[in-house]
Known about the structure:
By secondary structure, the protein is of the alpha+beta class. The protein has helices at residues 28-34, 53-59, 108-111, 246-259, 276-281, 300-304, 323-331, 362-367, 435-443; strands at residues 4-5, 63-72, 75-76, 79-80, 87-97, 103-106, 114-120, 126-135, 140-145, 169-174, 182-193, 203-206, 218-221, 226-233, 241-245, 265-266, 269-273, 290-295, 311-315, 318-319, 338-345, 348-355, 357-358, 384-388, 393-397, 404-408, 423-427, 430-431, 449-455, 458-464. The chain is 14% helix and 36% strand. The two termini are 34 Å apart. Residues 7-36 and 374-382 have low confidence and may be disordered.
Amino acid sequence: MKVHAxxxxxxxxxxxxxxxLLLPQLNPAVAAKGAETSAPAAPLxxxxxRSLAPLVDELGPxxxxxxxxxxxxxxxxxxxxxxxxEALRQGAGSGFFVSxxxxxxxxxxxxxxxxxxxxxxxxxxxxxxxVVGADPRTDLALVKVELPKGQTVPFVTLGDSDKARVGxxxxxxxxxxxxxxSVTAGIISAKSRDIGAGPYDDxxxxxxxxNPGNSGGPLFNLDGEVVGVNTAINPRGQGIGFSVPSNxxxxxxxxxxxxxxxARGWMGVGLTPLSPSLKERLAxxxxxxxxxxxxxxxxxxxxxxxxxxxxxxxxxxxAASTTDGLIRAIGARKPGEQLRLEVLRDGEKTELKxxxxxRPDEEDLQSGAFLPGRGGGGERRPPTVEELPxxxxxxxxxxxxxxxxxxxxxxxxxxGYLQPGDRLVExxxxxxxxxxxxxxxxxxxxxxxxxxxxxxxxxxxVELPPAAR
Length: 469
């Protein structure tokens, strides 16, 4: 499903940086409201079946409109011109205060590349804001406004998004297309949506109308608690919006407030879902589990003894039902924490302890830049090359380890499963030492096979279905 982040609403060409006027003081009504030290709650007497106005009256002052000035490299005839001053562009989004001293939550994509941030309050007051920190992986950011001495701002509390149910009524307040403090209502349409935005996707879907400019704004329940931060929409449909759950938001903003960044735990494995064929081959009774597909060298997983084909069934005693859930659970831990994993290996349960490292940047993960250097040793003898015509493989037998794939034919039944450079380590759990042994084992199998290969320094699980023999 294709989704779009609610990118900051681009202001018209006539709106310049100088047009964002900063008022010298808060609107008196807003300042008085902000003097309260507790967050507003749902009015005791209001009836949501008749009107949401009493709730909006309580919550509205804590919602803000952000105007952001961002730098962009000047262009000259379509080419970057480093010698020219940066061109400035402006965007807007929404946010909401989470503390009386001026901390507010918004989306990372609203403030990304910000040269300046202006926070517009209900009533017209404008205050300068400073980006405290941002987390691109969850598209969240924390901004702090500078308040006159002795003044506070109204704020709202984060609810428990785990308790929110599909069908619950919700209210969104934000600034779609610059129309500040617009209110829309709807229901929670679904939970735990994966929209392909990143490894920590766990969105609330809502049909409350949200549009560009709503980015970073709150999604309230009828008790006046924030259950989500409005972040993305499906541009091809109506009433399909996505919000980051408040239970994700809470941990992220705590880390941003303390350190300006989020450091996530990481084991150093690639996980694969438990398919029906893997379930049968690995003798797993559970319907859902996380299968270790890759173990990267020099990582906590490698040091703890995790192997491709291991099935992680529990983390610190809690069931690990899906790969996505396990990734989020590990990412919620801090580097240096120790995890206790319950693993199925060859049908037997074993327990491993893993001390987490910090998850590398996503670009480094994609490029493999996090992998340790692979230095060469002394001179090696030229490898002996063997041909396996029936498998369409050319293998080289080197001094150590199993045979390495040096060539693979286009019509090989293993094309798409193996790659040149792969070293074949195991077949169905048994070590592999020669090309002839590989031909014998694969030639006698009726139900496919499970291979373990070394690929770019990592140990990778490769499943060969019966059709691939």
